[in-house]
Amino acid sequence: MFTLPESLRPIYEDFGIDIAKDNGDDSFELPVPATYVINREAKINYAFVNADYRKRAEPSDVLASLKG
């Protein structure tokens, strides 16, 4: 989980997003985007996790993990 910094909370509130209410508690946590490729033996062949929601796994990396 990623905890939203105090400085960004008013921005979310201005957009009408109440993270604490949506979480059902007083936390300001957001999920972290992730991409996983898991093989038939339940082993993770590839993982990409980054708290910066703007960054995503490279499709070529994901495809390569499927082939190898």
List the helices and strands and how they pair.
Elements: E1 2-3, H1 9-14, H2 19-23, E2 29-30, E3 34-38, E4 44-49, H3 59-67
Antiparallel strand pairs: 1-2, 3-4
Q: What keyword list fits this structure?
A:
single chain; 68 residues; alpha+beta; 3 helices; 29% helix
How does this structure look, described?
β3 and β4 form a beta hairpin. The model has no long low-confidence stretch (mean pLDDT 92). It contains three helices and four strands; from the N terminus they run βααβββα. The protein has helices at residues 9-14, 19-23, 59-67, and strands at 2-3, 29-30, 34-38, 44-49. It is of the alpha+beta class and 68 residues long. The radius of gyration is 16 Å and the shape is elongated. The strands form two sheets. A two-stranded antiparallel ribbon has the order 1-2. Strands 3-4 form a two-stranded antiparallel sheet.
Task: Please indicate the percent range of residues in DSSP E strands (runs of 2 or more).
Answer: 15-25%
Mean pLDDT, to the nearest integer, reads 92
List segments where confidence is low: pLDDT < 50 over at least 5 consecutive residues. Answer: none
Helix content: 25-40%
The largest β sheet comes out as: 2 strands, antiparallel
Rounded radius of gyration (Å)? 16 Å
Shape: elongated
Give me the number of helical elements. 3
Distance from N terminus to C terminus (CA atoms, Å) equals 30 Å
Content-based structural category: alpha+beta
Task: Please tally the β strands and state the result.
Answer: 4
What is the H-and-E element order?
EHHEEEH
Widest beta sheet: strand line-up: 1-2
